[in-house]
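This part of the workshop introduces the protein records we will be handling. A record pairs a protein's sequence with a compact description of its fold. Comparing a sequence with its tokens is the quickest way to learn the format. To make this concrete, we reproduce a full record directly below:
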Amino acid sequence: MSSVIEIKNVTKEFKVLNRREGLKGSIQDLFSRDYKIVRAVDNISMQVQQGEIVGYLGPNGAGKSTTIKMMTGVLEPTSGEILVSGNVPYENRTRNAQQIGVVFGQRSQLWWALPLIESYRLLKEIYCIPDADYTHMLELYRSLVDLEPLLHKPVRQMSLGQRTLSDILAAFLHNPKIVFLDEPTIGLDVSMKAKIRTLIQALNQEKHTTVILTTHDMGDVDALCRRVVIIDKGKMLYDNDMEHLKGFFGSYRTLKLRTDGDHAAQAAAMQKMLPELKVSADTEWISVLVDESRAHVIDVLAQLQKQYTIRDMQLQEISTEEIIKKIYEEGVQ
């Protein structure tokens, strides 16, 4: 299996002006040379094989978007090497664009006022898709989703889920080798999330398309990704298969409680009662992070019920941010 993406010791730095406050400061900034260097990506290396679906995870500001912008050719790295389908993306942007598809931040590549089918026809001409290939892709789409009701509907009249679905189909239309998906299921209901995950998986299997997925929704990762790459503060923390990651964090659950009284004070009291656990609070919930290899959630809940009146509760899988924090603090075995 060949590598379609090769990243070797890539670093990206930005020069940022140290700004002053107020009108006087703004005027001084016009002539200032007081800059600081911000390293958004710090010496990252990885290879992605043809047909892989890779979850590229990290908290906001970790460097995910910067890395992907370098892979798509929008940014040039400060140092290191990037090859995408054998091309240096920032040197061959047109050739690179023919090999990739992108769905980023709900920024639609569809024409707002036109029916969906007209957007697809325009993309057909832009990417010089042969008639036979275009017809084949539309037939494939019809076999995967109920496309007919959308084809003649203006994009501006679509729901968020319908637009997202249509944008994903547009990204795969020219049969690219690689598709970059940024938060494809954000803001969608459970039914539409499941439909989009199934669609991505089917297109990956049918066309053997490599997919790079950035998301904060662990449901997306569980459903689609066998491999996960995690970065934080520009540094790579983890690059391994999903099963290894599950083995690392899978025993952690978050017990969320709604109680009577001051949550902050009660959380502090709970922390003293359960020093081996991590307890935090906001205005709505008290959160208790439980390592089930050490304590059972049901036992923790029973202990707390003896002391507090619990009005509501939720049990959540550990969040992406908590996974990253655990990996950062404890390392990966």
Remarks:
- The chain has 13 helices and 13 strands.
